[in-house]
Write a structure and sequence with these properties.
The complex is a heterodimer of chains A (127) and B (297).
Chain A (H helix, E strand, L loop, with lengths): L2 H31 L3 E8 L2 E3 L2 E5 L4 E7 L4 E5 L5 E5 L5 E5 L5 E6 L12 E7 L1
Chain B lengths: L1 E2 L1 H6 L6 E5 L17 E6 L18 H10 L7 E5 L9 H15 L7 E4 L2 H4 L5 H7 L4 E5 L2 E5 L12 H12 L6 E5 L18 H8 L4 E6 L6 E5 L2 E5 L31 E7 L6 E7 L4
Helix pairs in contact in B: 3-5, 6-7
The chains are: A alpha/beta (127), B alpha/beta (297).
Chain lengths: 127, 297
């Protein structure tokens, strides 16, 4: 193998490495530039507003809950049982990442009174 | 595994229970065998005293009384009666809550049988950690023995998350350690201990831990309420039997978009409402469960 060929191979490897590093850097920058979408939801006896939320498959979204009266719960059993306690007087956040499209039901899982059973909603996940 | 009545009957050979459909309800419970340790008790559930909704139950103040009259008319009186939760319908007002509890207790005191055991439901205990319930109906978790059968009452509603919680699981484990593995055990609780349908909150968050504790015991049956309909389910060798309610029926798990009460059917009053007797024979591992409808008139 002559020196010219060796130098040429090294150059190719170096260029490939640079592209890889640059791509990773760009991806990281893109991540920083596009923070997760935040959807604000209010919770009160015995409803969420909105109670139908559309998100994209595989894209993390932050649900930010505010309670207008008392402690409520939020759980999505079919999304790995993800849950959150929604306390009044603060922003309560949870990140939702749905791997598959479909409709996911959520409900209040902290008994909150006469009407608790109807405190429900759904997340519609689209490709 | 959820099983309908036909499937359930196929399970009879698996050592669970014998299901019998009561025809009248007034005429009497199953005939009792003569063994000295044989006994029968009645399970009433989800009476929701204080509920108001004429479209759902126009006889909201009469249904519980009808059930009690029917139990009183049983030819063979039960040894005791158990209530598996939601005796009252919830209210935010602590005074009104106590009023409902006092009224329900008064009506229940009309039972001829005076040995009555109560289990709390979230409507009774979910808003005040069971404080009012304990004033009117006693402890929310306890055990008792009756003719060789060990009863364990588990509270899965007083904690706001509808969990049993670790301290009670510790208590359950300690209670079970006192028993032989072949002891006859009946668990009374309100919510299903297994994941019946979590999307409708028909489960107990840490119920699997209780089932794990019960699993080494060969003769365990769980009786519960909460879902206002019969449901029969096996977790391993442990059968779980949900009882009908006495205020309004609810749809089958997941059969409708929402778990809303089934409206009153004027052509079939009290449809979907009922109670059951449970017979325990000392020479037979299985329980015999007889379902009775609430009847008009």
């Amino acid at each position: 193998m002559d020196n010219t060929m060796l130098t040429s191979k090294r150059s190719i490897v170096l260029v490939a490495l640079c592209i890889l590093i640059l791509s990773a850097g760009l991806a990281a920058a893109a991540d920083q530039a596009a923070p997760a979408q935040v959807i604000k939801i209010t919770a009160k006896k015995f409803e969420y507003s909105p109670n139908e939320i559309r998100i994209k498959t595989g894209v993390p979204v932050v649900f930010e809950f505010t309670s207008l009266d008392r402690v409520h719960g939020f759980t999505v059993p079919d999304l790995g049982g993800i849950r959150l306690t929604i306390e009044p007087g603060k922003a309560n956040r949870v990140t939702i990442l749905a791997p598959k499209s479909g409709t996911y039901e959520f409900h209040c899982d902290l008994f909150c009174g006469d009407g608790h059973e109807g405190m429900t909603g759904r997340i519609i996940v689209e490709d | 595994m959820n099983i309908d009545r036909r499937d359930f009957l196929k399970l009879l050979g698996m050592g669970s229970a014998v299901l019998v459909l009561g025809q009248g309800g007034r005429a009497g419970a199953a005939d009792m065998a003569a063994g000295k340790d044989d006994f029968m008790f009645v399970q009433l559930s989800d009476t929701h005293w204080g509920f108001s909704g004429p479209q759902i139950n126009p006889d909201a103040t009469g249904t519980l009384k009808k059930a009690i009259a029917a139990v009183n008319s049983m030819k063979t009186q039960p040894d005791f009666v158990v209530f598996t939760g939601d005796i009252t319908h919830t209210t935010d007002d602590p005074k009104e809550r106590r009023k409902r509890m006092a009224e329900a207790r008064d009506i229940i005191s009309g039972l001829k049988v005076k040995n009555i055991r109560f289990t709390a439901g979230e409507h009774d205990a979910g808003l005040d950690n069971g404080e009012a319930f304990q004033e009117y109906f006693g402890k929310t978790r306890y055990t008792f023995d009756h003719k060789g059968v060990h009863f364990i009452v588990i509270d899965n509603v007083s904690d706001p998350t509808s969990s049993i919680t670790d301290p009670q699981l510790q208590w359950l484990g300690d209670e079970l350690k006192k028993l032989d593995k072949d002891s006859r055990i009946i668990v009374l609780t309100h919510r299903p201990l297994f994941d019946l349908y979590p999307n409708w909150d028909w489960w107990t968050r840490d119920g699997a831990k209780a089932i794990d504790l019960l699993m080494p015991y060969k003769n365990v049956t769980v009786l519960y309420g909460h879902i206002h309909q019969e449901n029969h389910h096996m977790t391993g060798h442990i059968p779980h039997h949900a009882a009908k309610g006495l205020m309004f029926p609810l749809p089958a798990p997941g059969s409708l978009p929402k778990r809303v009460p089934i409206p009153w059917d004027a052509s079939a009053p009290y449809k979907g409402l009922g109670y059951r007797s449970v017979e325990s024979l000392s020479k037979k591992a299985d329980l015999t469960i007889t379902e009775y409808p609430v009847q008009n008139g």
